[in-house]
Amino acid sequence: MSQFGRESTTDEVLEGKDLSGLTAFITGANSGLGQETARAMAAKGAHVIMAGRDQDKLDAAVAAIRESVPQAELDTLTVDLASLESIRAATSRARQRFAKIDMLINNAGVMACPFEHTADGFERQLGTNHLGHFALTAELFPLVERGRAKRIVNLSSRAHHMAPVDFDDPHFERRAYDPWVSYGQSKTANVLFTVELERRYAVMGIDAFAVHPGGIQTNLGRHMTPEMTEALMKRVTSGDSGFAWKTIPQGAATTCWAATASELEGKGGVYCEDCHVAEVDDESAAGGVRSYAVNPSYAERLWKLSEQLTGAKFPT
């Protein structure tokens, strides 16, 4: 389905493409994969809205991109995905400032942090990685509807292999908190969100894709202790995992592919890795998407729970 693979870079995936006239909205665009996705798309003519929590960091990322892409058309928007109030305020500004969004890339995330809560009382990893993006997407949906490309890309991870969504205790109120179970649950939620987005809105020409970027050394691991890092590396390199580090341009390539590939038109609701659509696989440690992450009934159940928790409303 794709001529690209694990080692492909953003520039290779986007080679020959003209993104002029298209607008990409990218969360977590102030560093790492988000910044690289913004750079690569801006280099192909896209208008890129870079969203992040810290204006100074966003300004630094804009300056870095303009060093290599002087003509880049960039805007910034501050938003804290761990606060529904911040999300509502930021998306209100976005709807006033911008005419449309062609590619919504929900890239930001937090990984393996200590047990904490968001401003609204959600467990931080589920609250930021899934519920924050769920609310953000709902509020930005009118702009996506006006877009031409109509793609939504949700950054997931192979870490979804670590845990399904626990619908009985999603916020670890009654079970012992485990940072990796929490992270895995949030990454499964990203895939389920993608599945239900596609089911509901493919009829409107909107396609949603979940993406595993691969193993990349970014500031996502800032909460990890040396012991956690050692245990994680032991896990991901054991057996038949086939683990190998990617560069940031390689890690962001699957995002760029999912957001722009013509061969994916009308084929959303899937999980992508290494610039391919992954097979459903409940055994392999080396790849694939677990069946519980693409289960339609779980996807619908998570959607209803997310609406209940956030108060966010999508078109019906």
Which architecture name does CATH use? 3-Layer(aba) Sandwich
Mean pLDDT: 94
- What do we call the CATH topology? Rossmann fold
Which residues form runs of ≥5 with pLDDT under 50? none
N/C terminus separation = 32 Å
What spatial order of strands do you see in the largest sheet? 3-2-1-4-5-6-9-10
Question: Which class do the helix and strand fractions yield?
Answer: alpha/beta
State the CATH superfamily name: NAD(P)-binding Rossmann-like Domain
What is the level 1 CATH name?
Alpha Beta
Number of strand elements: 10
Oligomer: single chain
Rg result: 18 Å
User: What is the approximate shape?
Assistant: globular
Helical residues, percent = 40-55%
Largest sheet, strands/sense/barrel: 8 strands, mixed
Count up the helices: 10
What is the total domain count? Answer: 1
Order of helices and strands: HEHEHEHEHEHEEHEHHEEH
Describe this structure in words.
The chain is of the alpha/beta class and 316 residues long. The chain has a single domain, classed as 3-Layer(aba) Sandwich (Rossmann fold). Helices cover 41% and strands 13% of the residues. The protein contains ten helices and ten strands. The chain has an eight-stranded mixed β-sheet, sandwiched between helices. It has a two-stranded parallel sheet with strand order 7-8. Helix 2 crosses helix 3. The chain starts with 9 loop residues before the first helix and ends in a 6-residue tail after the last helix. The relative contact order is 0.16.
